[in-house]
Amino acid sequence: PYTPYDLAELVKLINSGEISGKIAKEILLEMNRIGGSPKAIMENLGLKQMSDQGEIERICREVIDENKALIDEYRSGKVKIFGAFVGQVMKKTGGKANPQVVNEALKKLLAAK
User: I need a labelling partner for 90 at 20 to 30 A (CA). Which of 23, 37, 101, 107 fits?
Assistant: First the structure.
């Protein structure tokens, strides 16, 4: 139900940072199910990746404030706990936050705490 052009468009959306690999899988499933342009599916389903640094930092601050106990564990050397912070941010954003921006913002905020 889709063309090579549609697949190329999907790859461009990933490369431009508009969607993540996870979101691309959802779009591909919809392309298989109903056909159509990846960009149109992304817009219709509201699947565009969140990359606004200010908004992501605000959400990261919320997650850090809600998990004060984890900060002490993280600082004591349990670096794997960093993944718990990332997971909470992704949960709050419905998996739409740009993981690279989330990681950078959390590292910056946790270093400042």
Answer: 37
User: pTM for the full model?
Assistant: 0.77
Task: Judge residue 54's burial from the number of C-beta atoms within 10 Å of its C-beta, 0-12 exposed, 13-18 middle, 19 or more buried.
Answer: exposed
Calpha distance 9→12 (Å, rounded): 5
**Is the alpha carbon torsion for 75, 81, 83, 89 positive or negative?**
negative
CB atoms inside a 10 Å sphere around CB 78: 12
Helix/strand/coil for 18: coil
pLDDT, tens only, 37-54: 999 999 999 999 998 999
* CA 18 vs CA 15, 75, 83: distances in Å: 8, 33, 23
Contacts of 47 (CB under 8 A, 6+ apart): 19, 23, 26, 27, 41, 96
Tell me the per-residue pLDDT of 8-31, one tens digit each, with 9 for 90 and over: 999 999 999 899 888 999 999 999
